[in-house]
């Protein structure tokens, strides 16, 4: 009877509310993978309640880009590894390069890669990305492991110092040719313009890029400059908003928070 009740969204939601704070992590077996996560933060709650976090988006992006192109996935802001697992379960990629700066996320990222037998084909780089090398304050939200970033969200936010590195230098260090990259998946909470400036080789090769686009987090001129720069290399732009998707002009990207796929 309990197993039957778990098929109802409302029952899973109320089950989630009953998990005490002393249960720090949960490991759950899904249909084709296994993940360890915190049931008390945003992504973990989605995994517990919905059974996935944006897997429908990952599947749709793979459907659009097809099987042509490089066999390496570059994930900038890999978080705890949900999309690393989803995207490799398709068989589309043979190698992963995962970049993640948050110490707690890195621990779960490695654990989830290991749980799914992906560590041998994956390189994990522990840093934030930008258009120069150095050290930067990384701000994080304990209730949302995906909301951390180098852009300060407001007064009182907790932070830790992490290395800041260029994407092009990271790829050279791990001996990955830009031609080998088949997809860039990027979600770095407002640092996208600086990250794009550090991956010029990938832009020139028109490697598909899926990124979270939040113009409210950019400097006033950054959104338009980034769009104009991307328009030099990409001819198609698909905006995902909730369950809908639409093609838009790259030079006229929508406001608000959206996931956007840039294609040759």
From TrEMBL:
Top-rank taxon: Bacteria
Ranges where the Methyltransferase FkbM domain occurs: 75-218
SUPFAM superfamilies to which the protein is assigned, alphabetical: S-adenosyl-L-methionine-dependent methyltransferases
A UniProt-annotated Pfam family: Methyltransf_21
Transmembrane intervals: none
InterPro entries according to UniProt: FkbM_mtfrase, SAM-dependent_MTase, SAM-dependent_MTases_sf
PANTHER family: METHYLTRANSFERASE, FKBM FAMILY PROTEIN (PTHR34203), SLL1173 PROTEIN (PTHR34203:SF15)
Protein name: Methyltransferase FkbM domain-containing protein
The species this protein was found in: Rhizobium loti
Lineage, highest ranks first: Bacteria, Pseudomonadati, Pseudomonadota, Alphaproteobacteria, Hyphomicrobiales
């Amino acid at each position: 009877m309990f197993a039957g009740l778990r098929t109802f969204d409302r029952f899973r939601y109320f089950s989630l509310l009953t998990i005490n704070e002393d249960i720090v992590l949960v490991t759950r077996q899904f249909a084709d993978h296994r993940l360890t996560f915190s049931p008390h933060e945003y992504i973990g709650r989605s995994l517990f309640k919905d059974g996935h976090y944006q897997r429908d988006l990952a599947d749709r992006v793979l459907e659009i880009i097809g099987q042509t192109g490089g066999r390496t996935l570059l994930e900038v802001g890999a978080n705890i590894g949900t999309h690393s697992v989803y995207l490799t379960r398709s068989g589309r990629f043979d190698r992963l390069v995962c970049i993640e700066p948050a110490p707690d996320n890195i621990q779960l990222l490695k654990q989830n890669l290991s749980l799914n037998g992906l560590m041998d084909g994956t390189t994990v780089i522990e840093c934030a990305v930008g258009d120069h090398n150095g050290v930067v304050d990384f701000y994080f939200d304990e209730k949302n492991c995906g909301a951390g970033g180098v852009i300060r969200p407001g007064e009182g936010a907790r932070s830790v110092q992490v290395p800041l590195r260029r994407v092009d230098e990271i790829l050279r260090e791990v001996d990955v040719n830009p031609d080998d990259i088949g997809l860039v998946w990027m979600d770095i909470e407002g640092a996208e313009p600086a990250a794009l400036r550090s991956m010029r080789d990938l832009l020139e090769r028109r490697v598909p890029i899926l990124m979270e686009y939040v113009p409210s987090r950019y400097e006033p001129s950054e959104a338009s400059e980034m769009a104009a720069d991307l328009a030099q290399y990409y001819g198609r732009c698909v905006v995902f908003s909730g369950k809908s998707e639409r093609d838009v002009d790259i030079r006229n990207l929508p406001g608000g928070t959206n996931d956007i796929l840039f294609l040759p």
